[in-house]
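go over whats below:
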Amino acid sequence: MANEKVTSNDVARLAGVSQSAVSRFFTPGTSVSKRTAEKIKAAAEQLGYRPNVLARSLITGKSRIIGLVVAYLENYFYPDVVERLSRSLQDQGYHVLVFISSLAADKVEEITQEILDYQVDGIVLASANMSSELAARCHASGVPIVLFNRLQDDERLSAVTSDNLGGGRLLACHLIETGRRKLAYIAGFEGASTQRDRERGFLEGLAEGGLRLFARDVGNFRYEEAQAAARRMFSGTERPDAVFVCNDHMAFAVMDVLRFELGLKIPHDVSVVGFDDVPPARWPAYDLTTIRQNVDDMVAETVNILLTAIEERDTPARRICLDGALVVRGSTASVDINS
């Protein structure tokens, strides 16, 4: 058999079982008896047999491949999400193709069209948006899409997010409760729903506390741009006494500038808060007060929605919004430390 292509029929003959039993053994989601499985496994290993996944997809009409689009991986939040989504989908017998995009809608569209060429069974868009035209094409092709950590108005698109609005409000209330009064905000990418909702919640929290936003700048979810925003915001004589940075990744950039370039003490001179609770937020170097996103539940909901839509094509779109938690650390403190 060394020079010939080994087939499932060859495995069946050597194992003394039916070809259909071999097929079931190698098909995710199906099963055979333990004794039969042991025979098939031993025969397959002896013959060097591996199932032809592409050929099976032609027969079943399902590739068992999920396309995952991520707009950027500099933010610690998304490598963690990619790993957890991939593991969860693999546990369900699916394979994940990861495509790196930019935040620009035309680039997302280009990559999503490429993904469709792979005959994927479903698509997850993490930190990326798609046009209504492309969403319609995917819908017509029977390829379900789930937005992860993003929202769009298109009712055909399912989405799983944290309560970004509520999280922004929580951070405003926390800063006000610690006695801060000159509260500023550094925005992420203006076209992202996470950015809009976090800022809106923050402004609502300020209004409830009888305050208005003291200063605002934009970091576009980029480390270098967040650094530049911090320099502009804090270099003058009238500077904020607290700043909400739209995500942790940018908050680290802001903290580095405040401490190492401008000589300000955190939280003595200024409190800093972020959003996500990525691992470095817990490091002593940052010790960042932030909103913790419930990634495990977000991933579980995303996989559940996607696989249900794959199995039941007419399943209506779903929108899931999960609560986050305020995690208070050393980057915020009451103003009485200044006395």
